[in-house]
From TrEMBL:
Protein name, UniProt field: Amino acid/amide ABC transporter ATP-binding protein 1, HAAT family
Originating organism: Belnapia rosea
An example Gene Ontology CC term for this record: plasma membrane
The ABC transporter domain, residue ranges: 6-247
Gene3D superfamilies tied to this protein: P-loop containing nucleotide triphosphate hydrolases
Entry GO MF terms: ATP binding; ATP hydrolysis activity
Lineage of producing organism: Bacteria, Pseudomonadati, Pseudomonadota, Alphaproteobacteria, Acetobacterales
Name of a matching Pfam family: BCA_ABC_TP_C
Length: 251
């Protein structure tokens, strides 16, 4: 079997007396969408922070693309291809949609465009930014100020900014949060398109979306992974159903 793109083993994180990540182990195969679900307060966001490198685990290891990254900070992990989509705050409202994506391309490329003549460098930068916008269906909005986009379009731009980093694994923390029904439909369509080209680790509350998108699902409850399996098996798992008692989402 091919080596997983992400392998998490024995990960632990405590906040005071609370084990928020309690011996978490799971791996993500290359290609498709692996979702992490769990009731409120299960520790999903804390897990994402440890995977992206903004929070240091107390114990355990995170291997990405065959490398130990546990002690690395976010910038180094991002350069290796472990990118996280940030919330809307990373969208610069006073810049155009294209400029927002171009800044992300530039951040990834470092000084490589400097070796081109300025006009050629700018053209190459804009082409790559435009390609990222097209992948999320925002090409027609390229010239608009990012600040006037709708909520759903800002989420699309956030995705384009992450894609501009050319990630090998894209971490998405609640990409549908705050989206209305139509925006949700559109975003699900975009994510279905992206999963053909990218490997995505998705944390999401919207169960309909998770079951429409995911190839595999890990269920986190009180900081522990209680199951990792294909969606149909997760849906039928009595322990998973019990964890969601009172929340009718999985049922
Ligand atoms: N910095 C912190 N200090 C202390 N406790 C924290 C801290 N961050 C999170 N927690 C606690 O850890 C637990 C897990 O929080 P986390 O936000 O990771 O869960 P979650 O699964 O993402 O929740 P939700 O689904 O509501 O977003 C919660 O009980 C939370 O109060």
């Amino acid at each position: 079997m091919a080596e997983p793109i992400l392998a998490v083993a024995g990960l632990r994180k405590r906040f005071g007396g609370l084990a928020v990540t309690d011996d978490v182990s799971f791996s993500v195969a290359e290609g498709g969408i692996h979702a992490v679900i769990g009731p409120n307060g299960a520790g999903k966001t804390t897990l994402i922070h440890q995977l992206s490198g903004t929070l240091r685990p107390d114990a355990g290891s995170i291997r990405f693309a065959g490398r130990e990254v546990t002690g690395m900070g976010l910038p180094r992990r991002a350069r290796l291809g472990l990118a996280r989509s940030f919330q809307i705050t990373s969208v610069l409202p006073g810049f155009s949609v294209l400029e927002n994506a171009a800044l992300a391309v530039q951040a990834r490329s470092g000084s490589s465009f400097r070796f081109m003549r300025p006009a050629a460098g700018e053209r190459a930068l804009n082409e790559q930014a435009m390609a990222a916008l097209d992948q999320v269906g925002l090409g027609a909005r390229a010239g608009m100020m990012a600040g006037v986009l709708s909520h759903g379009e800002k989420r699309q731009l956030e995705l384009a900014i992450a894609l501009a980093m050319r990630p090998r694994l894209l971490l998405l923390d609640e990409p549908l949060a705050g989206a209305g029904p139509e925006e949700t439909e559109r975003l699900i369509g975009i994510l279905l398109g992206l999963k053909r080209a990218y490997t995505i680790l998705l944390v999401e509350h919207d169960m309909q979306a998770v079951f429409a998108l995911a190839d595999r699902i890990s269920v986190l409850v009180y900081g522990r992974i209680i199951a990792t399996d294909a969606p149909a098996a997760i849906r039928a798992d009595p322990a998973v159903r019990a964890a969601y008692l009172g929340e009718d989402e999985v049922a």
